[in-house]
Amino acid sequence: MRKTPLVNQCYYHIYNRGNNRRDVFLDENDLQYFLDALKLFNHTESLGYSGQYRRKNPQEVEKIVSLVAYALNPNHFHLLLMQNVDNGISKFMQKLSTGYTMFFNKKYQSSGALFQGRFKSVLVEDDSYLDHLSAYINLNHKVHYIVIDEKYRSSFLEYVRGSTSYTDMCDKDIILDRFSAEEYQIFAENSVKSTLNLRGLQDDILME
């Protein structure tokens, strides 16, 4: 049990990494399965870990969390979530982690824990933190010097282009109510620059 329960209608930075820092996304299909699972398991009537669920009329589907932003790196992931129902984040993350682990172990003929224990969570306490956290997640490849390739995905394009193959993944209004797409791109890039500078890094790293 968590020492501090996760609260409904509050935003949380949720993250975890591979056990022993191992890569958990080895190709584009792995990323796609995880992205599909973000949808499949965000449902009050999702079934087990098989990726199947009973589908009602879309207007009647109750999401247990709202996904605001995501980043999938080769050996870890970041999610920005709002909890919609009691224990929603814990239920969602249990199904997501277990379902993806089963998929990964079957695909690569491995066994055992894929992720490093229980997911970590940090409460987002104000709008400024929420904005900067969304930038940190959306441009996470720049924070970790990760080349964008078949082993990386984020929700950044949803915010700045408004139309990608993952357009329906995120509930962006909480962020984009305060920015246009162009304003958000400038804000996010400046926010990450500040993060890198605080870590003693050079500005031109962001332009690589």
From TrEMBL:
Transmembrane segments: none annotated. InterPro entries: Transposase_17 (IPR002686), Transposase_17_sf (IPR036515). Residues 7-140 form the Transposase IS200-like domain. It comes from the Bacteria. It holds the Pfam family Y1_Tnp. Gene3D superfamilies: Transposase IS200-like. GO terms for molecular function: DNA binding; transposase activity. GO terms for biological process: DNA transposition. This is Transposase IS200-like domain-containing protein. It comes from Catillopecten margaritatus gill symbiont.
